[in-house]
Amino acid sequence: xxxxxxxxxxxxxRDGTELIAGVDLDLAAGERLGIVGESGSGKSLTxxxxxGLLPEGMTVSGSVRLDGVExxxxxxxxxxxxxxxxxxxxxxxxxxxxxxxxxxxxxxAGPLRGHRGLGRREAEAEAVELCRRVRLPDPAxxxxxxxxxxxxxQRQRVALAVALAxxxxxxxxxxxxxxxxxxxxxxILELITESVASEGxxxxxxxHDLPVIASVGDRIAVMRDGAVVEQGEVEPVLxxxxxxxxxxxxxxxxxxxxxxxxxxWEAG
Length: 268
Description:
The protein is of the alpha/beta class. It has helices at 43-51, 76-85, 94-97, 104-114, 120-133, 139-143, 152-164, 182-199, 210-216, 234-239, 244-255; strands at residues 4-13, 18-27, 32-36, 58-66, 69-70, 87-90, 170-174, 202-207, 219-224, 227-233. 41% of the residues lie in helices and 24% in strands.
């Protein structure tokens, strides 16, 4: 059975304007699917629709199944339970996802208590262990810090720890490295791929950056103007892209020497 099956996903504004048009996606457990496209292509909106986090005033139709369970139309109380052990999300800017007034250890412990039913002390100990897993320096001290006391890369590690706390079946990472410098980007990408591999989870990775997608994904879906214009395994798509937009993305990346295997390639 597929872990994630998306069929005919369509998102509209309240006035009927179509923003996402009939998107179909499949993702198996342990597989990594990268969605690439320019700003406004609909890739992040697709991720939000899968997670049931669309902004107010938007409607969604089609089908989103996780482990065979239809998510579209689920009451919010049930969808809240799905978020955590079912689906977790890492966003581009962790400061928007983290509470600035709460120590990061408590933020990691929150889902451990709410979704996994751990007691306070057990959750706190597990939060420190998660800090260690995401390679925060001095995990116990990092757990006592507030978000503003950490660097951008460290905050993103905390956001990943929060997402991983409930061992989700599907991790959605929406431009998680865009705001980071190149060295930190590479570390976060490695951490994300290692984390989903160790849990056997599926990864839906969103980026405007084709070289990043090429380094992370097993398969790729190319989006433009709210539609998937091409998808398939990464190597065949990059070796022989069929759609003009995919060829345009590839040409730009090759010209910059920014694809795996190119001299001087960097994922960022």
